[in-house]
Structures are given as C-alpha cells and as structure tokens.
Write a structure and sequence with these properties.
By secondary structure, the protein is α/β, with parallel strands linked by helices. Helices cover 39% and strands 14% of the residues. It has helices spanning 23-47, 81-91, 114-121, 138-144, 180-197, 202-227, 245-251, 269-282, 296-307, 333-348; strands at 55-58, 61-64, 74-78, 95-99, 125-128, 150-152, 237-241, 255-259, 286-290, 313-318, 360-361, 364-365.
Length: 367
Amino acid sequence: MMPVWKNQYPGTTGMMGRRRLNRTKVLRDSARVRFIAVAILCGLIVIGLIGCSRTRLERGQWQIERPVTEAHPIKIVTTTGMIADAASEVGGRWVSVKALMGPGVDPHLYKAREGDVLLLADADLILYNGLHLEGKMTDILKQLGDYIPTVAVAEAIPESLLIAPPEYEGNYDPHIWFDVRLWMRVVETIRDVLVELDPSHAADYRANASRYLQQLEELHEYVWNRAREVPERIRVLITAHDAFNYFSRAYHFPVRGLQGISTAAEAGISDVRELADFIVSRRIPAIFVETSVPPRYIEALREAVRARGFDVKIGGALYSDALGTPGTPEGTYLGMVRYNIDTIVSALLQQPLSQYGIEKQSGRASI
C-alpha cells in the first residue's frame, strides 16, 4: 500500500473577517461540500483511482513511478491561476498544469464541484495556496493530501514574513503574491517539490526556476520604481477588499479596503462613510475595482464621495485573486503584476494608460 503523504508545510487556522459574515450559510455549504468530497473520495479509493500504483515514497521523498516524458508529463492541478503559472514556468515541458479557478473567480467563495474532486484525484501533484485562501475547499484538499502529494505553497513561507493583522486574531493574510519577493519563495518551493517527484529532470527544473526567478527580481524592481513615482500625499490604494496588504508593506504603498481579507465579509454603511471622508480629506484622485469582486461597494463609495463635493474616479479594474484571460499578458503572473502597478500609478497621477500599452474605456481599464 502506498504510504501516506506527510505534508512538510503545516497549515494554519482559517481566516476570520472583521465584518459581519453570513455564518449559517457558510457552515451549511461547507458541510455539504465536505460530505460530497468524502463520498467521492471513498468511491475513488474503493475503485482504485487513488491507490498504491501511482507513486511511492523512497528515502523520504515522493517519486513518480512511471517515466516522465513530454507525452506523459507530471499532471499538476492547482487551485489558482497564479500557482498554475508558476508551476508551468518551473516544470516546463515535463508538466501538464490545470487550474481549477479561472479568470475572475473569487477563491474565497469558490465551491468545489464533483468534477473538481475527480480532476484532483487524477493528479500526480496538487498545489494550493493555503492560509485558508481556498475557504471551503481546504478540507477537501487536506483529505486528498492523505493519498496524493499535496502542498500548500504559501504555508512554506516562514511565519515571520507573513502578515497577521490584529483584527484577524492571529491568522494570516493569504494574498502573498502581491509581494514579488514572497512569490519568489513560492517558486522555490515548487522547484523543490518537482525535484523530489522527478529527480531525472531536476536539472531542468532548477534551470527553469533560476531563469524565472531572475525575471521576478526584475519585476520587483520595476514595481518598486513605479510606486516611487506617486507623491506621498496621494500614494494610497483604495480597493474593494484587503487583498493588497503585502503590496503595501513591500512597496511602501498604503492601502485601504472596504471589505476584510475575505470577500465573505460585508462592508457596512459606516465603512463607506469613513473611507469617503478619508478620500475627500486627502483628495485621492482614483479608487479601484477588482476583477474578481463585484463592483457595487466601490461604486457606492464613489457616490458617497461625490455627495461630499469631490469627484473621485474609478481608476481601473485590478487583478486581485485571479489572473486575466489566458493568452493575454495579464494571463500570466508577470503581466498581471505589471498591469496592476501601471494602472494604479497612471490613475493616481491622472496619466493616460496608453503610454503603457493599456487601453482604457468608460473610466475603467479594458481587461
């Protein structure tokens, strides 16, 4: 019998929003998803789709039992597009990567479908963010981790580098990809896992990772330099929810969000009023919607600001919890980060986005 996969990246407890949650519905949906997942997992184990023949543990490391070739690559399933993009960059031609959550999908509210569990069960490797970004899917992923190599990539980052806002009772902000230097650690984790799984192509994984890490280092410098262009008085990023805390810390760019870290939290009237007063007092020229979060809260905020006699613009739609459309620059991590900082800086400086090769229509960046 195949031995149990021991996750070397221990998890943390779930995030708790500082605003009101619809707890009854969340608990009911979570219980239903867990029930379906357990039933499917039990069936898969019985019929042998998860079982002894797929991988084996040798000398403390997982290895693919079959030869890994371009025709028969390592099957990787990820939750988010950001992780899928990193896995593709590091794995190159030796991996086949599928992401469960596509463009515009909010991972906080994502509900696993039966097809997702079947796709996960057929994987050679499962990569997810962790720190409870995936919300109700977390229990499913942990159960699958008993039978399939499963890694929560964000939980490999030292806790000393994670942000734990006091209002979240010691839990960590999961949006680590907005600090490019932290995302580089995720790439290193994926590299190490692939080397363990497939030592025969270790040199390729290391070379791919080295090349990609250099690109990420250059991206980090680009974001830092662009952020410095914005005068301190208006250097504030105002979005729908608190997804940009790591961006704020890494690039010295204060952020304010209407909702908490999880989009399951709701913004109240007092939150809108408080933020509207702040925008007017600082004369902040632009606020931002997010591609994976409904715009109604930001639109309500804009109306509240206008009622106070100041016209704030919606500067664009930022990518927060998901990448853009595959095949576009924003469909990659590199392109998404560059798009976000260019959109933020140009809107706050009231410059045309066209100089960065980005179109803008009807007050909102075209995505």
